[in-house]
Amino acid sequence: MPERRIAILGAGPVGSTLGHKWARAGHTVAFGVKDPSSERAQSLRAHLGEHVLIGSPADALAMSDIAVLAVPGEVVEELVTTHAHLLDHKIVIEAANKLPHIQKTLSTKKWADHEPLTSLSTLQAHAPHAQVYRAFNSYGWEPFADPLYQGVQADLFYCGPEGEARTVVEQLITEVGLCPVRLGDVDQVEVVDDVLRLWVTLALLQGKGRDQVALKVLTR
Ligand SMILES: NC(=O)c1ccc[n+]([C@@H]2O[C@H](COP(=O)([O-])OP(=O)(O)OC[C@H]3O[C@@H](n4cnc5c(N)ncnc54)[C@H](OP(=O)(O)O)[C@@H]3O)[C@@H](O)[C@H]2O)c1
C-alpha cells in the first residue's frame, strides 16, 4: 500500500500502539496531543525516533490525510469542533469511546443503559465531507498490540462507507494484524459499539482478562 500520512490524536495506549504498527509499516505518523513536551511524548519519541512528529492536534492534522481519534471520549466533541476544517475531506477513524465513568459503569454493570459511546453525530455535523469510520474501539488496546490467539488472527469489527477509503481503512486494520470485518455503513455504529459491550462483558466483567479475549466470526 502506498505510504499514508496519518494523524493520531492521542498517544495513550491505543494511539501509541497503532502508531507503532503503522510507523513500522512505513507510514508517516504524526501524533497530536495535549502536551507535546510530556514524559509520555518524550518516551514515544525515544521509541519511534525523530521522524515521527509529536505536536498539537492542529500540527498533526495539517500534515495528514487520515485522522484517528484516540483521545478521551469527553474531549472528542471539543476537538472536532475546534479542528473541523482540518478534519473535513479526510478519512476519520473514531476509536474514542465516551466512557467518562468506566469504573463506575463497570461496577454497576449498567452497560445496556449507557449513553452512546460515539461522537459520530458531532463529526457528521462539523466535518460533513469527512469519510468517517468507527474502528479500533471495540476491544481494549491489548488485542491491537498482540492480535493472535493461539495462532488465530482476531477480527476487528468496524463500520463506514464503501469505496476507496474503505480499502485504506481495511489495509490499516490489516497492518495492525487484525482481520477487518465491515458491519455496514455508519448507520451500524451501535452494532460496532455492542461488540465493545460484549468484549467488556467477557474480558472485564467475567474476568477472562483484557489480553485474553478477542472475537472471530466462523463461516462455512
Ligand atoms: N485504553 C483502551 O484499552 C482503549 C481501547 C479502545 C478504545 N479506547 C478509547 O480510545 C481513546 C483513547 O484511549 P487511551 O486509553 O489510549 O488514551 P486516553 O488516556 O483516553 O487519552 C490519552 C491521550 O489523549 C491526549 N489528550 C487528552 N486530552 C486532549 C486534548 N484536549 N487535546 C489533545 N489531546 C488530548 C493525551 O495527551 P497528553 O499525552 O499530552 O496527555 C494523551 O495522549 C479513549 O476514548 C478510549 O475510550 C481505549
TrEMBL record:
It comes from the Bacteria. The keyword Oxidoreductase applies. Residues 5-97 form the Pyrroline-5-carboxylate reductase catalytic N-terminal domain. Keywords: Oxidoreductase. SUPFAM superfamilies: NAD(P)-binding Rossmann-fold domains (SSF51735). InterPro entries: NAD(P)-bd_dom_sf, P5C_Rdtase_cat_N, STEAP_metalloreductase. GO terms for molecular function: oxidoreductase activity. The keyword Magnesium does not apply. This is NADP oxidoreductase. It comes from Ktedonospora formicarum.
